[in-house]
Write a structure and sequence with these properties.
By secondary structure, the chain is an alpha/beta fold. The protein has eight helices and seven strands; from the N terminus they run αααβαβαββαβααββ. It has a single domain, classed as Vaccinia Virus protein VP39 (Rossmann fold).
Length: 217
């Protein structure tokens, strides 16, 4: 890929749109299956809980959360891309329409009631947010005391090795993310690392890993 193609790929990864974005989202479901599964394991959603996901994509990888919540739970998916929000709504509401709400909204402006959320999950989204402190302050307000937040990311080393991350990605050391969480009221911050090996994305051979960060309010 040349620089223009890499820049276009980075833009679509941050906010998929149109036919190309929908096709990329389907491919990303394969690429992101492992990191999402490990993140959901750490989240451990249970029947009847209120769970918020920031960056739900087309919703297909979120199905285990919706199924775990059952008919008495609440799932709110926040998705910046209007195209992905429509896809997620169609994909998830087919399974549990009475408990699923998809909001085409930026995380900083989403109308979530304070101290109402049992768990929050954010996978492969932190790179596209400018101000981590502002983000963590905002989402902490949504969470009940004792609730948890889970963040799935690629490591700093992994991201720096990917050719498209120089376009619009914020690459942060794990220590900086943990420090920001603690500084903004989270506690018991822990992380797990997984080596995923090599995969393909848009014809590129890429080496991936997963960092799963869990924090308690």
């Amino acid at each position: 890929m040349d620089d223009q193609q890499l820049q276009a790929l980075a833009l679509q990864l941050s906010c998929p749109s149109d036919k190309e974005g929908k096709a990329l989202a389907e491919e990303m479901n394969d690429v992101n299956a492992f990191i999402t599964e490990r993140s959901i394991e750490q989240l451990a959603p249970a029947a009847g809980e209120y769970i918020v996901e920031v960056g739900s994509g087309n919703g297909m990888l979120s199905l285990p959360i919706v199924k775990a919540l059952g008919g008495s739970g609440t799932y709110i998916g926040l998705e910046l891309s209007a195209d992905m929000a429509r896809e997620a709504e169609a994909n998830l509401m087919n399974h549990q329409s009475e408990t699923v709400t998809i909001l085409n909204s930026d995380v900083m402006s989403a109308a979530i009631e304070p101290a109402s959320v049992d768990g929050l999950i954010v996978v492969n989204t932190l790179y596209f947010l400018d101000d981590l402190d502002a983000l963590f302050r905002n989402i902490k307000k949504w969470l009940k005391p004792g609730s948890r937040a889970v963040f799935g990311i690629r490591s700093e080393q992994c991201l720096k090795a990917l050719p498209y991350t120089r376009y619009g990605f914020h690459i942060r050391p794990l220590a900086d993310i943990k420090e920001s969480l603690l500084a903004n009221g989270f506690k018991s911050v822990s992380s797990s690392y997984f080596d995923e090996g090599v995969t393909q994305l848009e014809g590129l051979e890429i080496k991936l890993d997963s960092l799963i960060i869990k924090a308690i309010v």
